[in-house]
What we know:
- By secondary structure, the chain is of the alpha+beta class.
- β3 (59-64) and β4 form a beta hairpin.
- The chain has a single domain, classed as Ferrous iron transport protein A (FeoA) (SH3 type barrels), CATH 2.30.30.
- The longest helix has 9 residues, at 43-51.
- Strands 1-6-2-3-4-5 form a 6-stranded antiparallel beta sheet.
- Helices cover 19% and strands 31% of the residues.
Amino acid sequence: xxxxxxxxxxxxxxxxxxxxxxxxxxxxxxxxxxxxxxxxxxxxxxxxxxxxxxxxxxxxxxxxxxxxxxxxxxxxxxxxxxxxxxxxxxx
Length: 91
């Protein structure tokens, strides 16, 4: 059985695990739809991303490096922010 730390996607994103491979948004392929696994940051960053509609479980379409379509809107995210948003490929 996995410990609580190992079960958290934010602590295991560097270990590919089949279809549930979790990776930073900045490393995801352009043109793909991804699902947010978690936002790895302090409370302020998590609150700001949630206000923009980016929180665990939300699907977004990666338009190009740093540009995503979320809930009908387009957002431009810097590399430092997109590095802290962990995503999985959407089915």
